[in-house]
Structures are given as structure tokens and as C-alpha cells.
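Minutes, project check-in
Item: structure for the 150-residue chain
Input as provided by the requester:
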Amino acid sequence: MAMGERIRFFRKLRGWKLKELGQAVGFPESSADVRMAQYESGSRTPKADITNRLANVLDVSPQALTVPDIDSGAGLMHTLFTLEDTCGLTVTELDGQIVLCVDASRSREADELRRMLRAWQAQAAKLEAGEIAKEDYDRWRYHYPESDAT
């Protein structure tokens, strides 16, 4: 999902209008909605300081706004191929399910990826067990890695 789509996703999740978000970020009322529409459409990309302000206002990590563009199957696959090259990610089948595996002994990056996936799995397990609410799970995801205490 491109950055503009992530901004739109979080804005709508918070129930905000374009102008409201733009003003909260600090744009003048007269241009706040236009500026936000430009970011959301991708015709303009916010600089780092604006991205940080957007993240703060939307109550997410800046990384939640700047995820790689994986909208297409090909884009997603190339992201996974990169993880294969850098982290030893492999694909296999287990009980009829396709499973991605990380060989943590391959590199420091692979070990870090395994640690991050374990943290994600732990939060997902808490959600499934009813130990945390969906809102808590989403808060963890949208504030990752700052929210990760593992």
C-alpha cells in the first residue's frame, strides 16, 4: 500500500475529514484539505517532518505510513524475494498450508526478522486468546516497533 493510501486508511479509521487532518498537522484552513488530498492521491509526497507530524496526529508510528508499496502481487512477491535474499526467508508447505520460514542462523538480519515475527505472533496469540482487545492489537501494530516490549 502506497503512503497516500496509508494516510487515507488511518484518517478514515480515526473518522477524520481531509481538512480536519490537514489542520491538525498544521496547514492553514484554506489549504488543509487540498494538501491532504495531494498526499493521499500520491501527487505529492510529504517530507520527513510532515510525515512525523502526520504520524503523531494519527497516533501511529511513522513506519506505519511509509511501508513499501505492495499493492500488486508482483510488488509483494519482490518484497518477499528480497527477504529471501537478505534474511533467508523460505517458503514451504505444512499440513496443506503455505508457510514462510526464517533461517535465523543465516544472518543478523534473519535473526532480527525472526524476533520481530515472534513478537507479532505473540500479540496475535493474545488477541486470539482474548487476553487483549482488537484495539490493543491494532495499537501494537500501528505503533510498531515503538510499542514492542519483547
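Outcome recorded: The two ends are 27 Å apart (CA to CA).
No further action items on this chain.
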